[in-house]
Design brief:
The chain contains no helices and 9 strands. This is Threonine dehydratase.
C-alpha cells in the first residue's frame, strides 16, 4: 500500500465532498479531489495534499496510457495520471509509477 506525505493544504476553505464540483478519484482507502492541478484528501478536520511518498514502480504494466486509452485522465502537477485498478499511474522514465 502506498503512503502519502502528510502535508496540510494551508488556508483551504473549500469543503470537498459529493457534488463539490471537483473530480473525485478513488485512491486506496480514501477519495482524492482534483483541485488546481493537485490532489486533496480529507484528513480529520483539515485537507491534505495527497502526494506519494517515494518512487513506486508499477511492475509488469504493459498497457500504454494516453488519449483514448479508456482510463480516466487526471491532471497532476506537470503530468497526467491515469486511474487504473483503483490507483493512479504516472509515466516516469520509460515505466509507470503508482501514485
Amino acid at each position: 500500500m502506498l503512503t502519502s506525505t502528510h502535508t496540510s493544504h494551508a488556508n483551504h476553505t473549500h469543503q470537498h465532498g459529493a457534488g463539490c464540483g471537483h473530480v473525485a478519484v478513488p485512491h486506496s482507502d480514501h477519495i482524492d479531489y482534483v483541485h488546481d492541478g493537485h490532489l486533496h484528501r480529507i484528513h480529520e478536520d483539515h485537507t491534505d495534499e495527497c502526494e506519494p511518498a517515494g518512487h513506486t514502480v508499477h511492475q509488469e504494466h504493459a498497457h500504454q496510457h494516453g488519449a483514448g486509452c479508456g482510463h480516466v485522465a487526471v491532471p497532476h502537477g506537470d503530468h497526467m495520471d491515469y486511474i487504473h485498478d483503483g490507483h493512479r499511474h504516472a509515466q516516469h522514465d520509460g515505466h509507470w509509477d503508482d501514485h
